[in-house]
Amino acid sequence: MVKEKKATVKKPTKKPASKRAPSKRKAKKVIQKEIPAWVRYLLYVLVIVVFVSGFYFFFIRPYAYRWKPCYGLKGYGICMPAGYRVHGIDVSHYQGDIDWKMLGQTRQGQFPIQFIFMKATEGGDYTDDRFAANFDSARVHGFVRGAYHFYNPKTDANKQADFFIQSVKLEPGDLPPVLDIEKKGKDMKKLQADLKVWLRKVENHYGVKPIIYASYKFKTRYLNDSIFNTYPYWIAHYYVDSVRYEGDWRFWQHTDVGTLPGIDEKVDLNVFNGSKNELDAFCIP
């Protein structure tokens, strides 16, 4: 009898796992160096110093005069500049309704208010809505009064001059008209030429040289033409002990935070560079 051969089942041979070929590039070890503690502290200190310095330069330094000790005489909520006897204010619709009777009582105080400038017009078509009432009330209550025009460099100078002339009827005893210039526009030469047009036209109409109102920096930077020096100058220079402008000036607006009886809002305070008789002589004859 022939014996059957048992079929042999071949077990699948396991292929050895292929080994990845070693990378030719060696992994770079990232070495993290810790910043020394003293360096971190130094950086923190520098950041704080820069922040505090910037805050002081932009927000404290320009107004530091407000918090300086007052070694002179105090009035209307501020330290009054020394050596001036004729004081005044300027107002607009921002001051709201004024109690003129109460304001008139300041003439009996230590720093009597003698003159008041009022905003009359702006640009070529805007009239301050409190001007007419303020202008009439100032005369009734015995103040020397004046009117100013806020100049807009984007509007034709002739149009602005005509608009001011039509809106403001100055009388003998009033202060000369005022050109308030605070915006320089894009073209400096054009601005200067246009301002001369306004000044000449208004001077020809009222028969007196208009007053130029501008800040100390604006005047020295942008109105350095000698022709502008022939006009009376009303300088705006806040929070300083004295005027630093080297040229001639008639009025000095020395603060914008005055508090006066009869006026609810803060007020700009001014002084005249002269006596009361000289102020009267400076007015329209």
Describe the structure.
The chain folds into 2 domains: 36-67; 69-282, Glycosidases (TIM Barrel). The termini are far apart. Helix 4 (157-167) packs parallel to helix 5. The protein is α/β, with parallel strands linked by helices and 285 residues long. Residues 1-9 have low confidence and may be disordered. It is globular and about 80 Å long. A hairpin with an 8-residue loop joins strand 10 (251-258) and strand 11. The protein is built from 7 helices and 11 strands.
Write the layout of secondary structure elements.
Blueprint: H1 37-60, E1 74-75, E2 78-79, E3 87-91, H2 100-104, E4 113-122, E5 126-127, H3 131-140, E6 144-150, H4 157-167, E7 178-180, H5 188-206, E8 211-215, H6 216-222, E9 233-236, E10 251-258, E11 267-272, H7 276-282
Parallel strand pairs: 3-4, 4-6, 6-7, 7-8, 8-9, 9-10
Antiparallel strand pairs: 1-2, 3-11, 4-5, 10-11
Helix pairs in contact: 4-5
Total domains: 2
Give the class-level CATH name of the largest domain. Alpha Beta
CATH topology of the largest domain: TIM Barrel
Arithmetic mean pLDDT: 87
Key phrases:
285 residues, alpha/beta, TIM Barrel, eight-stranded mixed β-barrel, two-stranded antiparallel sheet, disordered N terminus
